[in-house]
Amino acid sequence: MHFHDLKKFLTAGALALAMIGLVASGAHASLIIPDLPASKNASSKDEKRAQDAYGKAYEAYGNGDAERALKFAEQAFKALPNASTALIRATILQGLERNRESFEAYLIAADLSPVPDELQLIDQGLAATGASLSPAMGWVNFKTTPAGARVSLGEGSFKAPRTVGLPAGQHFFNIQSAGFVGTQGNVSVSAGRGSNLSFALAAEQRQQAVVQTAPVAPTTPTPAPDATKPAPAATAQALPAKSQALAYSMMSIGGAALIGGGVVFSGVQGKIDEAQAAPTRSEYDSLVAEAQSSQMTAFILMGVGAGALGYGIYDLMSAPEGEATAQWNATAVPIYGGGALVVSGEF
Fold first, then answer.
1. Band of the pLDDT at 303, cuts 50, 70, 90?
2. Structural domain contains residue 200
């Protein structure tokens, strides 16, 4: 429900409210995140009750009885918490020179889906009350895709989208959401001014292991032995050569580790380029740290890969002659973010 006569009501007292807004309401230097009302399915009775209370608040405020007007405004907001009832409540609090409470009420109204006319009045109220506080405050509206990302800011945190109050100055923020790559940065806040920040978070890339199993030959029933015939003599069977199997394993593992190290190392220069283009010092430091970590990981992978490959070659070259050859195959293949070992055959 929206009460379209609110703009006319507020405009009539705009000059008086602007003068009142110059009065400071006390010192609060922390982040302001007012509690939003619980969502509810309003009944027709709730709407009727809110509309009656809203009309009485409008009438009482017009007659100069701000305290009585606030009482009815609270009733309207309780019955039907929306941008309209929050806005008249914030306006009356501002008229009573309760500027911090009014600033918080305007922040609540901003997060209750106001129409454009209401949003304009909310911004005007936030500007007047925010500039009057000590220290002076501004406000920031955070929006994220996906919605519901956790924003850490100063000593508090909240879920986007939200509109919050902040003292004038520079403020560091960090945004995280499960399954998405987080982001961080700084926002500059001016007294009596607002900012809108929107962030589209990229989905995390998940690496999946590649597993291939050797085909299993179908089995056939074994016929019962004929008691009238002598049992056949046992025949020696050649077994897979363990030394050759180990050699091939080490060579394949070494090849996969070398490929993985090369893939990781190829992304280091990209992170360095991103760091040089970073707009803030904190983003630069973070990207440089990621590049150094990736470089170290690449060196470790390539070192392990080279060692394993060398050991496999040595073991294969030093195997005794005449050993049976293992009937199996191991292949190193590159995949996104590293390498994989695909093994098949008889073991």
1. confident
2. yes
